Amino acid sequence: MKSYFFLAALLIISIATRAQNNSTVIENNNKILITGKRNGDSTYKQMDTTVIKIGRTKFKINSKNIVLERDSSKVERRKHKNIENNCLGLDLGFCNYKVMNSAISPFDLHQSKSINVKLYVFQQRINLIQHHLNFRWGLGVTWDNYRFNGNNKNTDLLKNKTDGTLYAIDDPVNYTKNKFVTKYLTVPTMLEFSFGKKDSWKSFRLGAGLEFNLLLEGWQKQVSAERGKEHRFSGDYNLSQMPINYVVRLGIGKLNFYGTYALTPMFNASQQTSSITNYTMPKMYPWAAGIQLNGL
Fold first, then answer.
1. N or C: which end of the chain has fewer CB within 10 A?
2. Rounded to whole angstroms, how far apart are CA atoms 116 and 107?
3. Do 40 and 173 fall within a single domain?
4. First-to-last C-alpha distance (Å) of the chain
5. DSSP structural state of residue 280
6. pLDDT value at position 188?
7. Residue 214: is it exposed, middle or buried by C-beta count within 10 angstroms (0-12/13-18/19+)?
8. In this structure, are 60 and 87 located in the same domain?
9. Range of the domain at 51
C-alpha cells in the first residue's frame, strides 16, 4: 500500500515540476523547496510529508494518505484605473429627424437605410468618485446618411445663390438612389454612473451629457437610369456649423447603447423663405440611436 502512495506522490510532483519552467531547488534544514516561474507555486518535502502548492491549493502527501487543502482567504481584486484610454471606438445605428411642421416637409426617409456612423479616434474615462461616477469624453467623426423615400425619393436640395436660402424641388428624374449626407467632427462629453463589476453581465452604466460638433461637409448623392452614373453634389447646404446634441449612453453587461438628439436645428436657414420658390425650410432636429461596437 505504501508503494501506491509513493507512486502517487511521484506522479503529482512530476506534474507540478513540469509546469514550472526554470525551477530552482533550495535545500535547508531537512526541507527541500522547489519553486518555479508561476508566482505562488511550490513543492517542498519536510520529514515524512510532501507538500505541493499550486496557486491556492495544497497537496499534503505522506505514507498514509493524501490531503487536499484550499486557501479560502480573499484575493485582492484588480484595481480599476483612474484614467482609461481607448484609441478606437465605433458606434453604428439609425438616424432621422423630427420635423416641426411635417405638413411642408419633403424629407420623409427610408428608415432602414438611413444610417448613423460614429468613428472615434480617442476616448477617455476619468474616475471622479470611487469608480461609480466617471467623466467621459472623446474625439471622432460622425456621418449621418439620410436616404430619401416614397414620394420624396426625387427631392433635390438647392441653395439660392442670391440670398443663400435653401429650398427643395421635386426633380422629374426617377432616382434609384437619393441620399443626403452630413459629416461632423464630434466631441462627446458626459457624466457616467457605473455599478457592478466591470465586464460582468451584472454591471450597469448610465451616462448623459452634451455632444459638440463642427461641420466638415455635406453632400447629396444620386443615382438614376436617365443620368447614367452616380452624381455627388457637395456644399454646406446652410447646415448648422456648430450644432450641439444631447447624448445618452446605456450599458448592461458587455452591451452598450447610445442615443443623441439635436438641441439646434439642422439648417441655419430653417426660417428663411427662398425668393425663387417662396418655399420655407422647416425646422428639423436630427436624432440617432444605435449600439456601440467597440470602445470604452
1. N
2. 17
3. no
4. 59
5. B
6. 97
7. exposed
8. no
9. 2-70
CA quadruple 142, 143, 149, 153: dihedral, nearest 10:
130
Instruction: Give yes or no for a contact between 71 and 261, defined as CB atoms under 8 angstroms apart.
Output: no
Give the pLDDT band of residue 288 (cuts 50, 70, 90).
Answer: very high
113: amino acid identity, one letter: K
- Last residue within a domain, chosen from 70, 91, 121: 70
Q: Count of domains in the chain?
A: 2
Count Cβ atoms below 10 Å from residue 84 Cβ, excluding itself: 15
Query: What pLDDT, in 10s, does the model give residues 104-133?
Result: 556 778 889 999 999 999 999 999 999 899
pLDDT over 70 (residue 150): no
User: Phi and psi (nearest 5°) for 76?
Assistant: -65, 125
How far is Cα 239 from Cα 233, in angstroms, rounded to an integer?
14
Q: How far is CA 249 from CA 41, 104, 288, in A?
A: 44, 33, 12
Which strand (E) or helix (H) includes residue 211? strand 204-224
Burial of 254-273, coded b for 16+ CB within 10 Å and e otherwise, reads: eebebbbbbebbbbbbbebe
- Whole-structure pTM over 0.85, yes or no? no
> Do residues 179 and 148 make contact, with C-beta atoms less than 8 angstroms apart?
yes
Whether the CB-CB separation of 22 and 34 falls below 8 Å is answered with no
Domain boundary among 43, 70, 97: 70
Nearest residue to 236 via CA among 185, 273, 199, 181 = 181
Q: Residue 199 has which C-alpha cell?
A: 465586464
Residues 115, 121, 127: CA angle, nearest 5 degrees: 110
The whole-number pLDDT of residue 30 equals 42
| Residue 186 covered by a domain | yes
Query: How many C-beta neighbours within 10 Å does residue 91 have?
Result: 26
